[in-house]
Amino acid sequence: MSEHTVSSYDEELTAIAGCIAEMGGLAETTVTNAVSALVTQDLELARATIKQDGRLDELLGEIEVKLVEIIARRQPMGGDLREIMAAGRISNDLERVGDLAKNVAKRVIAIDSDLKSKKLAIGVEHITELALGQLKNVLDAYTKQDAEAARQVREADSEVDAIYTSLFRELLTYMMEDPRNITQCAHLLFCAKNIERIGDHATNIAENVYYMVTGERLPEDRPKVDETGVVNA
Amino acid sequence: MKEMPKIDKADEMSETKIAASKVQVYYGTTHAIKDVDINIQPRSVTAFIGPSGCGKSTFLRTINRMNDTIDICRVEGEILIDGEDIYDPKVDPVQLRAKVGMVFQKPNPFPKSIYDNVAYGPRIHGLAKNKSELDEIVASSLQKAGLWEEAKDRLDEPGTGMSGGQQQRLCIARAIAVNPEVILMDEPCSALDPIATAKVEELIDELRENFTIVIVTHSMQQAARVSQRTAFFHLGILVEEGPTQDIFTNPQDKRTQDYITGRFG
Ligand SMILES: Nc1ncnc2c1ncn2[C@@H]1O[C@H](COP(=O)(O)OP(=O)(O)O)[C@@H](O)[C@H]1O
Ligand SMILES: [Mg+2]
């Protein structure tokens, strides 16, 4: 897009996009570290990850100040307005991603024992890989203002959901096999759920990127199949 | 917008107060308005925005034939109000201007009392049979213009002694007094401070219940605040027209986008 007549306005918008990019990068590392601490039972890394989340909260605060200021001073319109609304929402989603990763890191400390099964570790790593891929793709879509890429991210969320469902079943089986597994499996189940929700935040971001770029909302009709409810029944 | 129920859409299409088609305006050899087509809905506020010199005022003046008063000005095309061609030779421009009132940029009360400013139109159009009917019209016009409380005890004082904002609302009362259907406003707030502007905007919002209002404004924020539909003009062309929220959040034309976001060189 061409430049504003008032060039400091461009600089302010660029600064906001820069903050989002920084938050995005940080959110990705926080998730990677939390899960890596989980599968290797690295308590040191878990503690460092919890600290890292604090920086995401700080950045969110900084972005909010910048957004309020730009709204008050510039009264953004059109594509600028959509960009600013999207930045507000995306930064909130990224901050939530950080919280979810922090929650995983806290559970590493609570579990404080090696994972009972290599297969379980692989399962958690796999869902994390998918969720992180979603996060990376949606952040790229944001940077490149690519509505089609954002749409694809939303489509792909069902894969994360499917993996979560199969992990859920697996953990349930372990718990039924031996009640001594219950504590660890329950923690792992929450970890998996947190990572599945990171995927949901990537989806939210995708919807906001799509709106930011096109001015249209993605149709609401994506059916969310949660089979874990059926298993529970 | 695409998800709107069909009935709303149909209503929107069928209700037209002012229908302009293929309108051209020339000042001598200058082609100031080019091929403008627009339908303006009744009982709503339509805002004209665009860079200075793009033809907003020129087009506004075609709606009550104010351009007739400019010698070198020539208007072509068709403008219908309630389906009637206002450029038909049978139409009396003076009668037309009672039906289509106008408020200007600079408040221009007559150098007469507040009362006479409002009573002027009804008198020349013979709208009141006697003094008490005229009093009635003056009072109700001042009320509709939100000026009654401030003016009722000083009706004999000169209108020119009021504040700028009051003068502008007096001009609106004067326009309302002849019972118009359409009110045209050409940058009515550009000489007013923010508080007086807010009062006029509040008034415009109330008036749209009974009148069709077309307002030219150089303030996009004002267009966003007061209008239901917005039309963007550029170099004499109507680039884009639509629901105000769409124009300011998701304009379809790049020129509109550049203008509303402050990207015009
Ligand atoms: N009375 C006039 N005589 C000659 N040219 C005019 C007259 N009024 C306007 N114009 C020209 O017509 C164009 C549109 O002007 P105007 O309608 O006043 O624009 P806007 O209201 O959007 O600022 C401009 O190029 C202007 O110079
Ligand atoms: Mg003008």
From TrEMBL, chain A:
Annotated NCBIfam families: phoU_full
Protein name as catalogued: Phosphate-specific transport system accessory protein PhoU
Alphabetical list of Pfam families matching this protein: PhoU (PF01895)
Homology family: Belongs to the PhoU family.
InterPro entries: PhoU, PhoU-like_sf, PhoU_dom
Assembly mode: Homodimer.
Cellular localisation: Cytoplasm
Transport among keywords: yes
Domain PhoU: 20-108, 125-209
The keyword Cytoplasm appears for this protein: yes
Principal location: cytoplasm
GO biological process: intracellular phosphate ion homeostasis; negative regulation of phosphate metabolic process; phosphate ion transport
Protein keywords: Cytoplasm, Phosphate transport, Transport
Summary of the function given for this chain in its UniProt record: Plays a role in the regulation of phosphate uptake.
GO cellular component, one term: cytoplasm
Domain of life: Bacteria
UniProtKB/TrEMBL annotation, chain B:
Species per Swiss-Prot/TrEMBL record: Roseibium hamelinense
UniProt keyword terms in alphabetical order: ATP-binding, Nucleotide-binding, Phosphate transport, Transport
GO cellular component: membrane
Record has ATP-binding as a keyword: yes
Gene3D superfamilies given in the database record: P-loop containing nucleotide triphosphate hydrolases
Nucleotide-binding found in the keyword field: yes
CDD domains reported for this sequence: ABC_PstB_phosphate_transporter
GO biological process, one term: phosphate ion transmembrane transport
UniProt xrefs under SUPFAM superfamilies: P-loop containing nucleoside triphosphate hydrolases (SSF52540)
GO molecular function, one term: ATP binding
NCBIfam families, alphabetized: 3a0107s01c2
InterPro entries membership: AAA+_ATPase, ABC_transporter-like_ATP-bd, ABC_transporter-like_CS, P-loop_NTPase, PstB-like
Pfam families reported for this sequence: ABC_tran
Family stated for the protein in its record: Belongs to the ABC transporter superfamily.
Record-given protein name: Phosphate ABC transporter ATP-binding protein (PhoT family)
Signal peptide, first to last residue: none
